[in-house]
Amino acid sequence: MTTRERLDRRRSPLRLVLVLVASTLVLLGIAAAVAVALLPPVLAETPRERITATSATTATTAETLRSATGSATVAVPAGWLVLGVGPFLAEGTTTVVSPDDAYRAEFTVLRVTSASAGRSAYTELLAAHDITKAEATAAWNTETLSSGYSVRWTELTADDAAEGASATEREKGIAGEAAEDDRGPTIVLATLTAPDPTIPVELVLVATVSAPDAAAYRTVTADLLTEATLSATASTTPPTSPATGGGSS
Fold first, then answer.
1. Does residue 229 contact residue 242 with C-beta atoms inside 8 Å?
2. In the chain, is it the N or the C terminus that has fewer CB atoms within a 10 Å radius of its CB?
3. Would the pTM of this model clear 0.70, i.e. be above it?
4. CA 75/CA 228 separation, integer angstroms
5. Terminal CA-CA length for the chain
6. pLDDT tens-digit profile of 80-134?
7. Which residues lie closer than 8 Å to 152 by C-beta, 6 or more apart?
């Protein structure tokens, strides 16, 4: 067989088709991998529904969060927007936004543990909201609701925003607190635990609100936490709401 015949054989239509099919499959695989990486965060921010009053006497809708060890139920007021659609959503997290878009609350149910190794989920949550350093030095408030539930909460500024504000202070030579606009939004971090030690989960709230509006929204934070409940089982039935009392202000 001559060299020309061998070259012509290598360029046969079947070989070309196989090369094109292989190239297409590779490109489709890359596109699928990119979609899997990008879709979850996009879908997590997609509005799901606007909560409406279920009756004349019920102005909230229950959102149940589940984990392997328990569940939590949050009462979302009418008019609030629930975010997140699609198959990638974690059952243990829900995000809601106030009707005026000024207050965003992300609730996550986590396993209660005193061991540092078991707090990896909490550590990851702090890192996702850029408040790891701020949480470590935060001044905490602790309150007990009339239901027996305990609330531990604090108000923070995101680590990057706080560092940027400190740099601005140094540049301007201004002592004391930086302007609220320089420090960015206020982040409310709170944990809710049940009085029953057999309930192995806690509810963590990370709420974001503009610094000038933070004080006005403290009652909103209190109401959301006061109406929340915890259960030792990750059932599909929301736990019975306990008697509720006043929250933090």
1. yes
2. N
3. no
4. 6
5. 91
6. 988 866 666 677 888 999 999 899 999 999 988 765 555 788 999 999 889 999 9
7. 140, 141, 142, 190, 191, 193
The whole-angstrom distance between residue 98's C-alpha and the CA centroid of its chain comes to 15
Report the candidate in 39, 46, 87, 81 with the shortest Cα–Cα distance to residue 63: 81
Residue whose entry in the numeric block shows the structure tokens 């923070």 = 156
Type of residue found at 234: A
The SS3 of residue 101 is coil
How many whole angstroms separate alpha carbon 246 and alpha carbon 23?
A: 64
Helix (H, G, I), strand (E, B) or coil at 46: coil
Cβ–Cβ < 8 Å for 108, 122: no
60 strand-pairing partners: 77
Predicted local confidence at residue 233, as pLDDT: 77
Q: Provide the CB-side half-sphere exposure for 90 (13 A, CA).
A: 14
For 78-195, where are the E strands, in sequence order? 81-83, 93-97, 103-111, 141-144, 150-157, 186-193
